[in-house]
Amino acid sequence: MLHAGYVHNIKLTKRMFTSDRALLETLLAAYWENGGTQAMISVVDRDELERAMRDPEKYSHLMVRVGGYSARFVDLPPDIQRDILQRTLY
């Protein structure tokens, strides 16, 4: 059973919203059925983050979670960008 009132950070790939959509729906249904109250869902794509670091003017729309707040990836200092990239799933 999940603890009521907690926010759970969940990182998913873009594939979960396309070819694995049924799996995503099952995952979220189980989350809510087992007491999930709030979820912070992030969709991560390591390749896209790397492209944004190389060509930031094309990725001003890219938002990421940083320590409890959201920020434009390209506006973050390079060391923070690298840290986010290192924590991103392959």
Describe the structure.
The chain is an alpha+beta fold. The protein has two domains: 1-44, no CATH class; 45-90, no CATH class. It has helices spanning 21-33, 46-54, 78-86; strands at residues 7-13, 38-44, 63-66, 69-72. The chain is globular, with a radius of gyration of 15 Å. The model has no long low-confidence stretch (mean pLDDT 86).
Order of helices and strands: EHEHEEH
Major beta sheet summary: 2 strands, parallel
Query: What is the assembly state of the chains in this entry?
Result: single chain
Mean pLDDT: 86
Based on secondary structure, the structural category is alpha+beta
Number of strands: 4
Rounded Rg: 15 Å
Number of helices: 3
- Helix fraction, binned, reads 25-40%
What portion of the residues fall into strands of 2 or more residues?
Answer: 15-25%
Low-confidence stretches: none
Question: Strand order of the main beta sheet, please?
Answer: 1-2
How many discrete domains?
A: 2
Distance between the termini: 29 Å
Shape summary: globular
Could you give a quick summary of the protein structure above?
The chain is 34% helix and 24% strand.
Which properties best describe this structure?
90 residues; alpha+beta; 2 domains; two-stranded parallel sheet; two-stranded antiparallel sheet; 3 helices; globular
Give the SSE layout:
Blueprint: E1 7-13, H1 21-33, E2 38-44, H2 46-54, E3 63-66, E4 69-72, H3 78-86
Parallel strand pairs: 1-2
Antiparallel strand pairs: 3-4
